[in-house]
Amino acid sequence: MRTLVVLAVLCSVAECTQLCYKCNGVPSQSDCGETIICGPHESCYTKRYTGPSGNLMFESGCMAKTVCSVININFGGAGRRKRELVNCLKCCDSEAMGCTEKNTTACGCNADLCNTNNDHGTKCFHCDDVYHPNQCSELKECFSDRICYTRKIELDSNGEKRFSMGCEQKRVCDVFEENALSTDEGTYCTRCCNASFCNMALCGIPQLVIPSFTRKPNDRKVLDGDIVTLHCEVDPKSNATITWAFQSYTGLSTAIPSSAQIMQRGTRVQIRVTRDVLGSWTCTAKNSVGTSAAVAKISSALPVGSG
């Protein structure tokens, strides 16, 4: 059994559905122990090539979908690149193949490209003691008789919750399920699932996702002396931090004007209108998964050239 490290920022599989294996210069895809979350315009790929010494090597990761649409072919022994004889270069799309929170078996679709014929075992997040599952950044490949689990224990002394995650024997998981020995809401919980990457959201823990706005700031037409308020709110489940940035129309000022007051943890900014506040106001919501931004423009209600 080997331990694998996830290099990508952890996120909800439902949001980051393009999860791919990422390695360079390994003798077999089964030796690939890293994963990466690709961008929305990328797909997974695997390249098999013959190195300078005649040995087969594998490379995998993310590639632009526009490139994949052109090169998704088997080279059949042709195609030399940088002293490498490329035997095969193929892409796949985990999202198109159905990679979701409930169907994680479709994630990491480039594990078996280019006829590597690898028998990858189930990969589970593995940590002995964390405050929250999203703090776990390690994967372990389980033996065939084991599946993923998450265990929650609430400490009696202060009510603090601790989590352990990893591989568990199927028969042990069956005992917990059949006898209902634990509950999501109770002080003790053990839950199992039988798919790679599936144990991030067990025991009542929702997946952390990229912040989504429930209210965005609106463009405003203003006059000198007006008091305006811009609102920026996100789903509280995203546990995001909100910040504001300003860019004047002249491009000379990027500092938040002194006549603006940021309130309620960034969800509101109250502005007393002067010429200094005319420009673009950007609200940015950020958490450990990613960043979302919304822009509002404050401009003068007077016709151009007046005043």
From TrEMBL:
Q: Which residues form the signal peptide?
A: 1-16
Q: Which PROSITE patterns match?
A: IG_LIKE
Q: Cite the Pfam families for this sequence.
A: Ig_3
Domain Ig-like per the UniProt entry, residue ranges: 211-299
- Tell me the keywords, alphabetical order: Signal
Q: Which CDD domains match?
A: TFP
Keyword Nucleotide-binding on entry? no
Superkingdom, natural source: Eukaryota
Question: What name does the UniProt record give this protein?
Answer: Hemicentin-2
Q: Which organism is it from?
A: Mizuhopecten yessoensis
